[in-house]
Amino acid sequence: MKYTAEATINAPIENVDLATWLYSLSDEEYQACSRGHKGAGTFVENGVRGMINVESVGGTLMLQHYHEASAGPTRMEMFSPRSRAYVFRLVPVPIMVRWTMTATRKTADTTTFSCTVEANMPAALRVLAASIFIPYLLRRHVQEETLLFAADIDRKLAAHNAPTVNRQVG
């Protein structure tokens, strides 16, 4: 299964830095970017940055241990070769998840943010996933988090670029 969604960031591409944004994303901010997001944290293992994400998609609890595959201002690729999906929140099943985010120039003042999630799983799980609407629910999850990730980036860029007001005490 592979799904991509797009949203607009109201800032020029020169102001966008996906790697900095992702690794500064707090657990609370991650949770605010989707109803299914339960928690997240970053780590460094053998000199490679990574992120642990816990989320629920259609009632299936997923635990991803992402490692950075590539990182830069306009492209982030995270790879979790040994994610776990807990079917019916009971049965752990291994899946591979690749999460890619890109930023491309839309106009001089806007950027297209794209989020792609690709999940590969054993054939038996694909059949089960289809029977409980996981493909539809995953697509909906990616759409929701993409819009809210872009909104979080927008908020942070606006706060960073806000003019400062000098107040004199008199």
Describe the protein.
The chain has helices spanning 18-24, 27-32, 123-131, 134-161, and strands at residues 2-9, 37-45, 48-57, 60-71, 75-87, 91-105, 111-120. It is globular and about 50 Å long. A 7-stranded antiparallel β-sheet has the order 1-7-6-5-4-3-2. Helix content is 29%, strand content 45%. The termini are far apart. Strand 5 (75-87) and strand 6 (91-105) form a beta hairpin. The protein has a single domain (2-160), classed as Alpha-D-Glucose-1,6-Bisphosphate, Chain A, domain 4 (2-Layer Sandwich). The protein has 170 residues and is an alpha+beta fold.
Q: In brief, what are we looking at here?
A:
With 170 residues, this protein is α+β, with helices and mostly antiparallel strands. It has helices at residues 18-24, 27-32, 123-131, 134-161, and strands at residues 2-9, 37-45, 48-57, 60-71, 75-87, 91-105, 111-120. Helix content is 29%, strand content 45%.
